Amino acid sequence: MHDTTAPLAADGSKQKLLASAERLFAERGFNGVSVRDIASVAGVNSALVAYYFGNKRGLLTAVYLRHCQPLNQERLRLLREFSRGERGATLEQVLEAFLRPALAVSPGNEGRSEFTRLRAILSGENSELLEEVIEEHFDRPSRLFVEAFARCLPHLSHEDILWRFHFLLGTLYHTGGHAQRLAALSGGQCDPANTEACLRQLIPFLAAGFRLPSI
Predict the structure, then answer these.
(1) H/E/C letters for each residue in 49-96?
(2) What is the per-residue pLDDT across 67-85, written as a single tens digit (0 to 9) for each?
(3) Which CATH architecture best describes the domain 64-211?
(4) SS3 for 113?
(5) What's the predicted TM-score (pTM) here?
(6) How far is the CA of 207 from the CAs of 8, 95, 202, 212, in angstroms?
């Protein structure tokens, strides 16, 4: 239980901590950021981290929760919507249901989605903590999408689907975490922060990979 004797915060301090933690974690990873760093950027007393979140781990979990709940809800809403027809959702529609909500997250500095970049950076740390957070908040929706892909691709084994879903995640993380690289390489012609342009390229590319025969 959090320490209720901690000094009371001014209105908005909790949201300021969440926003600064998300930005700093996305820039430096979990291990490269201290509670003092987060509080300093937020402009609040560092004791408020313990007051609201318990510790830095609790703060990271809170950052995930404020994104993953609406993200998962929107993904599943789109999947249900696309599945209403007689033939169910197409492969392209399943991909869109999974990708669109993640790519449509409000872009941060330099056209990046802070949350998608955060996930990419933390994945690079191979953090046990990250695995626990993802398992708790993403495993069930991920299994539902794996099942949806399997219905679209009956020629593939469950193992094939899992491998291709894994590569889908890697593509999504890289697209969200390194958008500025493509923008610079193309002189601004290709902008992954443009959701519709990104989906026009990404969905056919990934669908072709998913449809390959079993290896």
Answers:
(1) HHHHHCCHHHHHHHHHHHHHHHHHHHHHHHHHHHCCCCCCCCHHHHHH
(2) 888 889 999 999 999 999 8
(3) Orthogonal Bundle (1.10)
(4) strand
(5) 0.75
(6) 52, 8, 8, 9
